[in-house]
Amino acid sequence: MDVHGRDLRYFATVAEELNFTRAAERLFVSQPALSKQIRMLEKQLGTSLFHRDRRSVRLTATGEALLPHARELLASWQAAQAAVEDAKAAERHTLVIGMSTSPGRGLLPALRARLVSLYPDARPVLRQVNWADPSAGLADGSSDVAFVWLPLPDDERYRYAIVAEEPRVVALPYGHPLAARAAADHEGAVDFADLLDEPFLALPPEAGPLRDYWLALDSRGDRTPRIGGVVASAEETHEAIANGQGVALLAAGNASLVVRDEVIAVPVRGVSPSRLAVAARTDDERPTVLAYLAAAERVATGPS
Amino acid sequence: MDVHGRDLRYFATVAEELNFTRAAERLFVSQPALSKQIRMLEKQLGTSLFHRDRRSVRLTATGEALLPHARELLASWQAAQAAVEDAKAAERHTLVIGMSTSPGRGLLPALRARLVSLYPDARPVLRQVNWADPSAGLADGSSDVAFVWLPLPDDERYRYAIVAEEPRVVALPYGHPLAARAAADHEGAVDFADLLDEPFLALPPEAGPLRDYWLALDSRGDRTPRIGGVVASAEETHEAIANGQGVALLAAGNASLVVRDEVIAVPVRGVSPSRLAVAARTDDERPTVLAYLAAAERVATGPS
DNA sequence: TGTTGTGATAGCCATGCGTTATGGACGTCC
DNA sequence: GGACGTCCATAACGCATGGCTATCACAACA
């Protein structure tokens, strides 16, 4: 039914040399091994491929019929192998950059530039990941590096470089009472204490510690938050806020993703700032990955 | 380096089903066997071919690159197998008929007709064999059946049917003294006794008993023949006789092959007649071979 | 007549590739 | 929420495959 490619290779070589001993040498196997394999192939095909007279080996009509096909198969397999090698090379050069929302802040072009200056063959590819995954695809391998919000669950599995630290703001519906209070505030801000009774939009439970972080659990004491809804994208968040399902904390730099139409954002006093990092798996030592992380470190400590 | 065709088949099937269990069923192997083979293939290629997430199996980029090649290889192997089958069928229907010289006597068309009436697919192919082989190719398998002159060496290896029995004649140069004597004879013949001192053309030594037969050794008592030359074809025989190297016995029906220009043939008294047979190897039981022999028997005993 | 070249055979061992049994991670259903 | 079904991976094991070396059989040749 099937052949082993090796057998075709053996066959083609014997057909070329018409001498088992020499063919065996060319194939780097012993002559008996070659004889046996050819016999097995003949047995499998139910016909002989070579006439072996005492002094000479020559192809039978069947062997003659098989030879061109065998050569074609061998060539096709070569081509298939080459295709696989190409695909492997492409995969090796591709760096999938996961992100829950565009990191903005000029980060992507800066990092990209540093990466390709070191590895001109590298092909960075951006990938949008659902908010339910706080590792932005690192965990399941669908991203090679990722923009993530700290804290990162399971964080010994990842290494990261913080690329931005910025205050959190709260997104509110336009007509919300706190919007007016903020407008009256001398800083245009609200205290987190005033938000404790508000329903909050939360990340899906799978997000783990990150869900807690955006609910600012650590600033609530023993008061549990009211959950007004679960959101997993900027679009859903905007909709939910506009519909009055709840309010949500955001990084200041991300406010623009949600603020439009009925929704505004105001600074919040009394919550820690948010930290955005570039992360990769600890066990991933590929040079392009390490280079991207190094670039992120330099961006963070560099001119800003 | 090489692949087993089976592995490509497995790969293509999994790629189609995207489910190892179902693919294993379609391939009539157990699911673990399939899993293992795919892993081995991936190991061999140095890359993974499938993403196996918890709930889904899908091709990697490399797998995607390999798939069309795998399909092509499988199709090519199908074609190769078909070509081999065709060649086998052709070989099975081909009947190689060996002969040292054309048997003439209307035998070939008669036997061919009987063969194809029984086996319409049979393709009789004529093959001229050097006179050094008294089996006309049966011995080394290059003929399936053969027209041979008795006695046949090694004759338990062959079965045969005598298809002609006819007197032997002697071929002489035109100006040979015995030519004149024959002309004066009331039967136009010569006695073999008068030929004992003549140089004879002989078959090559490999011809064994047949060489002795055409030297008529059994009619010479203890007188050893003088050998004027060794001949292995009608053309050589004609040349050698015309050049005066010697004379030669021939079957009457074969005289025309040698008699022209300087050479004549005259009947000989005192030698046994020659017997032409159709022979095949005893261990060859193929229907077309047996049919050809049976046809030869009927020709011999039939209307003549 | 011994030497050389060639393919086939024998005996041995490591690996390949199949099997069944079982495990573990998810879903789904009652 | 516990039992069950689905799906892929692993473990343990056995027969077949495919390699090796040593040796034979035979023809050619010196």
UniProtKB/TrEMBL annotation, chains A, B:
GO molecular function: DNA binding; DNA-binding transcription factor activity
Keywords in alphabetical order: DNA-binding, Transcription, Transcription regulation
Cellular component, GO annotation: protein-DNA complex
Domain HTH lysR-type: 1-60
Alphabetized InterPro entries for the sequence: LysR_HTH_N (IPR000847), LysR_subst-bd (IPR005119), WH-like_DNA-bd_sf (IPR036388), WH_DNA-bd_sf (IPR036390)
Pfam short name (any one): LysR_substrate
Superkingdom, natural source: Bacteria
Family: Belongs to the LysR transcriptional regulatory family.
Protein name, per record: LysR family transcriptional regulator
Organism (species): Streptomyces adustus
